[in-house]
Amino acid sequence: MTRIPEEDRNMMEQAIYLPLVLTVLNRDLVVVEKSPFKLKDPYRHLIEETMKIIQKELYEVKRYMSKNKLKVEQLNRDEAFTMYLFLYKGYEEHHSYFNPRIRNKVQELMEFYLFKRHVCGQEKTEA
């Protein structure tokens, strides 16, 4: 049983997932640059703008965590699981994440930032 409230735990998980999304997008940017696409700029701009938005959100997550004395550290990783240490206002908790779950969450976030974010933004302006 965790002592960490859901909102704080969600922020701590964002501190895990968002850097991973940025890592994937950075790698994809390198692939786009080396690709034989005739017009690379639209792909590059999409990835770069998405990365800027994620970086802003990651900044806010880190600011929230600092303000609320929260910290996340990766302890170890094997083929199946990654273990994280969550420090919450003086308490320590170990959380183990199934690596395919991490990958799926990163993919879900990438889809949101690359596609669904735009749809959500249109719905807000139209409503």
From TrEMBL:
Record-linked InterPro entries: YhjD-like
Origin: domain of life: Bacteria
Family annotation (Pfam families): YhjD
Protein name in the entry: YhjD
Species this protein is from: Bacillus canaveralius
